[in-house]
């Protein structure tokens, strides 16, 4: 049974104080906190298994290799990939996206089109701009409406035989909107385009099934799913990963090297040059185990409850406006108080021990759309409570009183 | 008054407050009282980079002293820049260049000194001193 008080005991950081007040951590969309089980896995790896992998004949290296490959299998199972070699371990979502963008620079020609959405994080815009600069490709943008939803009729019109790749986040980091990726994938495939979905914000809340989605590429970061920083994954369909050239040269990614010619290793190693983040990869597996032990259905139900509660309570504050009002959204609330800068609100909340994010959330085009400098963003996780939301609401009221 | 005198005066004022709330309230009030900058100076070239909120600073030389005016779209940031301007305005460039800013720590606003801090207090001090260096060069 889902019991938030029991779950909170797993997270040592939740009992610390900030500025003399109990920490209320509502910056989960930036990074999630780490349960003891995951911390233990880090300690266990360095205490008992630390060795370089895939090369050593000695036992320690074999054991570390087994753990690393087991983690890959766990990730495969979690995302329901067909093969474990379709899971490439990377340093995180940004690395995964750049890997695909770099690969497509070999496949694109002048006039080919890439479609991204207006809801993207900067790291989802810049690699494609760079790719278009290199290849003469054209970047097209799916617009959004006032609710922070993508306009699908405009997407339909953007698609053509020139479309080679569609790139959309599963969930918007700035607004929390859940995008209709099933529709996007189906439509993109009808014109022969590949689809890359950024799951950085979705994987902490839902368990995507890459085969059911029929998605070509799906990327995520461990640190947003109770795992460590500096590790993430790229899922790619085998056929696509075979088509893309290697990203970086180095150890692990080669089959044979002479000065005349190098042949590349098979998947997944072709894309994993150099010594990988071994501890990170193994612990990513432990984080997935932890989240599955809570259960994604329970997580989604509970977080939805928190979202509804917080939305209702915050809207009771006069002059508070929420940005991102799609019916289909996750537990992220982006808001502003009338005539008050989000930075000021964030500063007062911090003095009260409440961690929120302020600013443009690396999504300036969204802020430009609403003509605002930024928002205050509170993002909730399954270990947060309604009492903490009450503290946030009181904090916002206090900030309003002090700042107006 | 010298820069040091002004800083001591500010330290005295802040020492009356018992907790962060009173300190911040005072700083917010200082921000509200900051004389308005002439709109013609609220240009992109006068924006201090490195702040999450926008901060505009304008400097003018009068009788070998620099007069600063400033504004911000965030009120706490405006309070911080108001404190800095009170310290540095109507002072000789050389005195501004030589001044230290330890008083920020002494008035209980140490957290704003961290370079990771999005309000860019460090950037503000740097920008004010850059103006002083520029005007000092003219004087030499």
Your description of this structure?
Chain B: Pfam families: SufE. Chain B: InterPro entries: Fe-S_metab-assoc_dom. Chain B: Residues 12-130 form the Fe-S metabolism associated domain. Chain B: This is SufE family protein. By secondary structure, chain A is an alpha/beta fold. Chain A folds into two domains: 4-30 and 295-403, Aspartate Aminotransferase, domain 1, CATH 3.90.1150.10; 39-293, Type I PLP-dependent aspartate aminotransferase-like (Major domain) (Aspartate Aminotransferase, domain 2). Chain A is 40% helix and 17% strand. Chain A contains 14 helices and 17 strands. Chain A has helices spanning 4-9, 36-49, 59-79, 93-104, 126-135, 152-158, 181-190, 210-213, 238-243, 278-294, 296-315, 342-351, 364-370, 386-403; strands spanning 17-18, 21-22, 24-25, 87-90, 113-117, 138-142, 163-169, 194-198, 217-221, 232-236, 254-257, 262-264, 320-323, 332-337, 354-355, 357-359, 375-379. Chain A has a seven-stranded mixed beta sheet with strand order 4-10-9-8-7-5-6, with helices on both faces. A four-stranded antiparallel beta sheet of chain A has the order 13-14-17-16, with helices on one face. In chain A, helix 3 packs across helix 10 (278-294). Chain B has a two-stranded antiparallel sheet with strand order 1-2. In chain B, strand 1 (55-62) and strand 2 form a beta hairpin. The interface between A and B is medium-sized, with 14 and 15 residues.
């Amino acid at each position: 049974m889902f019991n938030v008080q029991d779950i909170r005991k797993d997270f040592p950081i939740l009992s610390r104080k900030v500025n003399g007040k109990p920490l209320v951590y509502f910056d989960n969309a930036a990074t999630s906190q780490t349960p003891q089980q995951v911390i233990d896995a880090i300690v266990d790896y360095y205490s008992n298994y630390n060795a370089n992998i895939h090369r050593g004949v000695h036992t320690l290296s074999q054991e570390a290799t087994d753990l690393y490959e087991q983690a890959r299998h766990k990730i495969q199972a979690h995302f329901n990939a067909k093969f474990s070699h379709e899971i490439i371990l990377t340093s995180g979502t940004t690395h995964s996206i750049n890997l695909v963008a770099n690969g497509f620079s070999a496949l694109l020609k002048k006039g080919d089109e890439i479609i991204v959405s207006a809801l993207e994080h900067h790291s989802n815009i810049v690699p494609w701009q760079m790719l278009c600069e290199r290849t003469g490709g054209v970047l097209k943008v799916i617009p959004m409406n006032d609710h922070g939803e993508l306009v699908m009729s405009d997407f339909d019109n953007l698609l053509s035989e020139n479309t080679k790749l569609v790139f959309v986040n599963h969930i918007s980091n700035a607004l929390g909107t859940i995008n209709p990726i099933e529709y996007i994938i189906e439509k993109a495939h009808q014109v022969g385009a590949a689809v890359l979905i950024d799951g950085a914000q979705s994987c902490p809340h839902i368990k995507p099934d890459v085969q059911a989605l029929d998605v070509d590429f799906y990327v995520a970061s461990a640190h947003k799913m109770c795992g460590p920083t500096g590790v993430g994954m790229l899922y790619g369909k085998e056929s696509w990963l075979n088509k893309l050239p290697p990203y970086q040269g180095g150890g692990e990614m080669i089959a044979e090297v002479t000065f005349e010619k190098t042949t590349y290793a098979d998947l997944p190693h072709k894309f994993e040059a150099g010594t990988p983040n071994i501890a990170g990869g193994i612990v990513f597996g432990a984080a997935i185990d932890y989240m599955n032990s809570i259960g994604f259905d329970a997580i989604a139900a509970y977080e939805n409850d928190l979202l509804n509660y917080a939305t209702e309570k915050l809207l009771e504050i006069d002059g508070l406006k929420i940005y991102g009002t799609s019916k289909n959204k996750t537990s992220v609330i982006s808001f502003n108080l009338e005539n008050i800068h989000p930075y000021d609100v964030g500063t007062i909340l911090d003095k009260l021990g409440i961690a929120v994010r302020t600013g443009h959330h690396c999504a300036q085009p969204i802020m430009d759309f609403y003509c605002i400098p930024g928002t205050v963003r509170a993002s909730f996780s399954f270990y947060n409570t309604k009492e903490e939301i009450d503290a946030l609401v009181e904090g916002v009221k206090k900030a309003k009183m002090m700042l107006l | 008054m010298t820069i040091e005198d002004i800083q001591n005066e500010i330290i005295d004022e802040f020492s009356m407050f018992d907790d962060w709330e009173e300190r911040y309230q005072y700083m917010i009030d200082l921000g509200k009282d900051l004389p308005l900058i002439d709109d013609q100076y609220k240009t992109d070239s006068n924006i201090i980079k490195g702040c999450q909120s926008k901060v505009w600073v304008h400097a003018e030389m009068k009788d070998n002293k620099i007069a600063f005016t400033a504004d911000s779209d965030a009120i706490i940031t405006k309070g911080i820049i108001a404190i800095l301007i009170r310290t540095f305005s109507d002072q000789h460039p050389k005195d501004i260049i030589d001044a230290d800013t330890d008083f920020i720590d002494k008035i209980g606003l140490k957290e704003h000194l961290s370079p990771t801090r999005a309000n860019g207090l460090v950037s503000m001090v740097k920008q004010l001193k850059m103006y002083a260096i520029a005007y000092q060069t003219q004087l030499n």
